[in-house]
Structure formats: structure tokens, C-alpha cells
Amino acid sequence: GEDVEQSLFLSVREGDSSVINCTYTDSSSTYLYWYKQEPGAGLQLLTYIFSNMDMKQDQRLTVLLNKKDKHLSLRIADTQTGDSAIYFCAESADNAGNMLTFGGGTRLMVKP
Amino acid sequence: DAGVIQSPRHEVTEMGQEVTLRCKPISGHDYLFWYRQTMMRGLELLIYFNNNVPIDDSGMPEDRFSAKMPNASFSTLKIQPSEPRDSAVYFCASSSLYEKLFFGSGTQLSVL
User: Fold this and answer.
1) Which chain B residues are closer than 8 Å to A88 by Cβ?
2) Pairing mode, if any, of strands A85-92 and A71-76?
3) Phi-psi sector, A70: left (phi>0), alpha (psi -120 to 50), beta
4) The pLDDT value given to residue B112
5) How far apart (Å, rounded) are the C-alpha atoms in residues B106 and B4?
6) How far B46 CA lies from chain A's nearest CA (Å)?
7) In whole angstroms, how large is the CA radius of gyration of chain B?
8) Which parts of A7-68 are beta strand (E)?
9) Which residues of chain A neighbour B26 with C-beta distances below 8 Å?
10) Which pLDDT tens digit goes with each residue over B29-85?
């Protein structure tokens, strides 16, 4: 079955760039997602990328997809303390991108 | 739209009691998902509906769990009888062919 793996924890200093990595196993993935979860809240969709793209940029966020290696990354430029949260990578293989398989989440801690 | 609305936000109950969690999806979304989040198992998909019809309930842990969607704007997840190991955060999420998955704020369930 599908499997999505992430490292558990990342710590950076305010103002630095953060890079959160994710690997997945399903070669038929159509969409790959990044969600952010703040304490006591639900998951918030940050961005997503279609599998035929290799990069997507949205303000401070850059998503890189290496489909050959099944590797997805999220780069946050100029990381702020408000970026501290758990970040979930997810993939879907259905055409509509509705059936998601989530990774375990990476806890990002931003130190002032 | 107010987003996906879940109630209650917190539920504390005693073992053996019936628990009912409620969800109102985003208007116009025709997919509804119930997830459970725990430290040990991360995010697990319990069941999902399309056009109010349950499509896949293979993630429902036991017969003690049941879910219904009587109309397009309301769904319930019921646990009867509840057990301490059911303690978790339960998320409802909705989507459509044209909008990606949006999550509610979750219900924190504690079974004593």
C-alpha cells in the first residue's frame, strides 16, 4: 500500500529557511500536498502540486517534487515564529485528489 | 463559508457511554471524511462519504464505531460503547472535485 514518510522534528532560527522533506512510495500519485497544523487546530491546506510539475512557488513557500526519487520538499523562506507547527505531507492517487494518505508530520520549531 | 464545523470541540465521557460527534461540511462539497489522530498512529482515515453514501469504511476500527450522513449538510460519528483507547482527536473534512480537502477544528475525545 501507499506509504508517506517524514522526519519527526526540525528546529530553525527565525529568519532562516526551513526545508521539510517527505518521501512517498506510490508511483501513481497524482497530487502531493502540504498541510499545516497549529496546536489545537485542524489541518490547514498550505499548498499542493500536481505530479507533472517539479516546482511550485507561493510567496514564502516553495515546493519541489522529484518524481523519480519520490521525494517532496517544502521550503519556507524567512521562517517566522508563527510558522511553528506540525507540517504534514500527503499524497493522493485518485484523479480528483480527494483520497489522501498522510505522513506522520514534522514538528517545526522556530527559535527567536 | 464558515468552513467545516465540528461539535463538540471537547468531549469527556466515561467508559461504556455512547459518544456522538457531529460535522457540517462546507456547502457544495460532496465528499466527507472522518479521520482520527493519535500520537501513536498519526492520522487515520476512518470512513468517507460521496454524495451522502458511505464509500469506504475499512478504516473503522470496530463495530462499536458507526457513521451516518443523512443529508448533504450533516454527518455523525458514533462510538457505542466507548473505551479509553478511543481517546483521540477526531477530524471531519470535506472536499469536492473542484476544491481540495478542508478540515474542521476537530473534537478532542477523552474516555475515562
Assistant:
1) 43
2) unpaired
3) left
4) 96
5) 9
6) 12
7) 13
8) 9-13, 18-24, 31-37, 43-50, 55-58, 61-66
9) none
10) 999 999 999 988 889 999 999 999 999 999 998 899 999 999 999 999 999 999 999
